[in-house]
């Protein structure tokens, strides 16, 4: 009676199955990473694109007694940039956003999300303030209406208050040059 052979064979088959599963998992991971290198990976479809931006009225970071709302921003296009001092990707994005804001092609509105005002002010003092105005949403209630998942996120809103574009993740020079700037230029030509 020789029973060790079937047990040994079962162990080998189990080891091969685990190794095969691991190889498949690595292949899928590699495929996913390669797909994430596409330039449009953060440009997710949003049900808000082509629709009116949600109405809001939020306090200004530098003076909470003053509020800015969607009605105040209508009439000229704007870029709404969601950020927080707690957000490492916002720090990476900040020089790109500052460089684009310097062109003055569009008003860049800072939307400080779920942040302590003192921390946000300190962050802007340290890294610079490229924003036309900074509104703050500590509770995050307005963010729900905008469909905000996290920071950074950026919305392009036209002069009529229609959301034209949404970008999830940090803006890069390539995204600004290849996607955002042409859209802003096209909106300027439309009037």
What form results from the Cα inertia axes?
A: elongated
Global structural class: alpha/beta
Rg on CA atoms, Å? 23 Å
CATH topology: Glutaredoxin
Strand arrangement across the biggest beta sheet: 5-4-3-6-7
Summarize the main sheet: 5 strands, mixed
Separation of the first and last Cα atoms? 90 Å
- Give start-end ranges of low-pLDDT stretches: 35-39
- Would you list the SSEs in sequence order as H and E? HEEHEHEHEHEEH
Number of strands: 7
CATH hierarchy: architecture: 3-Layer(aba) Sandwich
| Count of alpha and pi helical runs | 6
Q: What portion of residues belong to β-strands?
A: 15-25%
Notes on the protein architecture:
This protein is elongated. With 191 residues, it is of the alpha/beta class. The termini are far apart. Helix 4 links the parallel strand 4 and strand 5. The strands form two sheets. It has a five-stranded mixed beta sheet with strand order 5-4-3-6-7. A two-stranded antiparallel ribbon has the order 1-2. It has one domain: Glutaredoxin. The protein is built from six helices and seven strands, in the order H-E-E-H-E-H-E-H-E-H-E-E-H.
């Amino acid at each position: 009676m020789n029973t060790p052979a079937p047990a040994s064979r079962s162990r080998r088959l189990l080891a091969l199955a685990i190794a095969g599963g691991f190889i498949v998992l690595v292949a899928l991971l590699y495929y996913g990473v390669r797909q994430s290198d596409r330039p449009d990976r953060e440009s997710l479809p949003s049900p808000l694109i082509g629709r009116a931006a949600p109405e809001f009225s939020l306090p200004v970071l530098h003076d909470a007694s003053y509020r800015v709302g969607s009605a105040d921003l209508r009439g000229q296009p704007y870029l709404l940039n969601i950020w927080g001092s707690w957000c490492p990707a916002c720090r990476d994005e900040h020089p790109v956003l500052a460089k684009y804001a310097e062109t003055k092609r569009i008003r860049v509105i800072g939307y400080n999300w779920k942040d302590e005002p003192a921390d946000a002010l300190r962050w802007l003092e340290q890294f610079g303030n490229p924003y036309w105005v900074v509104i703050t949403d500590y509770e995050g209630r307005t963010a729900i209406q905008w469909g905000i998942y996290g920071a950074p996120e950026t919305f392009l809103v036209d002069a009529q208050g229609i959301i034209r574009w949404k970008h999830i993740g940090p803006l890069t020079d390539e995204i600004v040059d290849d996607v955002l700037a042409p859209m802003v230029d096209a909106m300027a030509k439309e009037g």
